[in-house]
Amino acid sequence: MALITPTADFNGIMDKTGRWLKWLHMNPELGNMDGPRERNTQAYIQSILTEHAVPHITVAGTGTVAIVEGKTNKSGRNIGIRADIDALPIQEANTEDCSNSPGVMHACGHDGHTASGLASAILLSLDNDFDGTAYIIFQPGEEGHGGARAVLSDPAYQKLNVQRVVALHAAPFYKAGIVQVKEGPLMYSADFFNGEITFPGGHVGEKFDAARQGMDPVAAMGEVQSRFTALQNAFASHRQIIQITNVHTDTSPENGNTIPSRITFKGTTRATTPEMRDSIQKGLENAVSSIHQKLQKSGIEGFDLSFNYNRIADPLINDRDTIQICRDALSGNIKMEEGIVHGYADDIAAYPNSALLFVGINDGTPGSAEKLHTSSFRYPRSALPNFVGITMAVTKQALQQS
Ligand SMILES: [Zn+2]
């Protein structure tokens, strides 16, 4: 059985969708919730929806929600399909039909998500044989700009009472024709931490002075590192990650005789469940505060150790009921895989009852097999029909007439 019956409507819209994909790829805009970015992308999305008479509203500044009413609405059910629209600060290495903006590139397939989201909104409105409402959410700022939270906190979005949200994401690590439909943990949380150790610093010779014998910010940094490593090792499953990625001192790299007075460090963590994430944050904060207490006892004046832990992306745990709807919709139509937990993060996790499906796009063309967020990646045109077919099948399954 095929995922889609290629009707005249479908073929006509898919021709246009290929052109939209090309335009979006060539005109990428970075996400930025505070500034005027994504404006051209938003205007393009809204002009296509208007041209095809699909009602839509603006959300979160540069976002758009297309509203497709079913033939009936007895059940009051609805479903949201999330398509993210922002690009990345990467210089494209492809040469054909590539980005017109130096240093900005659609390297995560959001051009394909947007183009197929447009096609799905239009085709669902032409073929609205379902009960309830479908929302296609063109979300800004997915790449770490807090776009999902901005959408969720917009009163215009809240009024829609969206009950569940499904996102389709390009997967160069799967062959075209395969989709990952996995219940439970799918992606890790991604949080960042930073800290600063300050000591008086100075000439190494000053350590002869009894009052300054404990003056060793490098040893303090080493203690932070070893406590963090011990925590990491305590996680038997190693499905949590604590990684210091950056350490800087205020002494010159040429200097071997001066004790630094300031060391800064940065790092990141990953966890698959909210409980693991809580235990990582608590563990790191406790480790730092016990080092702080110990060093404070040394009585060195001017010593300080500060630490901040910032929660960025929640772990993505695919909702059981939403995944069941996807399985029922796709069973027999496309090859489904359970797959693994991925080290990526996606802010789809912030939406209630959400699930993300990784849709295989590797069709043998060079860019379609490249890693996400790399300069040679490219969402291939051949992936569009599967994205649209899956979106339509899942929507109709969620909103089937009883
Ligand atoms: Zn992405």
Could you characterize what this model shows?
α1 runs antiparallel to α3 (110-126), α6 packs antiparallel against α7 (274-297) and α8 (320-330) crosses α9. The model has no long low-confidence stretch (mean pLDDT 93). The protein is of the alpha/beta class and 402 residues long. The longest helix has 24 residues, at 274-297. The two termini are 23 Å apart. Helices cover 32% and strands 25% of the residues. It has an 8-stranded mixed sheet. The chain has a 4-stranded antiparallel sheet with strand order 10-12-8-13, with helices on one face. The protein has 2 domains: 8-188 and 315-398, Zn peptidases (Aminopeptidase); 190-313, Alpha-Beta Plaits, CATH 3.30.70. The structure holds zinc ion. The site of zinc ion has 4 residues, from loops.
SSE inventory with pairings:
Blueprint: H1 8-26, H2 39-51, E1 56-59, E2 63-69, E3 78-84, H3 110-126, E4 133-139, H4 147-152, H5 155-158, E5 165-175, E6 178-180, E7 184-187, E8 190-198, E9 202-203, H6 217-234, E10 241-249, E11 258-259, E12 262-270, H7 274-297, E13 304-313, E14 316-318, H8 320-330, E15 335-337, E16 354-362, H9 384-398
Helix pairs in contact: 1-3, 3-9, 6-7, 8-9
The protein binds zinc ion (ZN).
Number of helices, where a helix is a run of at least 4 consecutive DSSP H or I residues: 9
Structural class: alpha/beta
Order of helices and strands: HHEEEHEHHEEEEEHEEEHEEHEEH
| CATH domain class of the largest domain | Alpha Beta
N- and C-termini, Cα separation: 23 Å
Structural features:
402 residues, Aminopeptidase, 9 helices, 32% helix, binds zinc ion
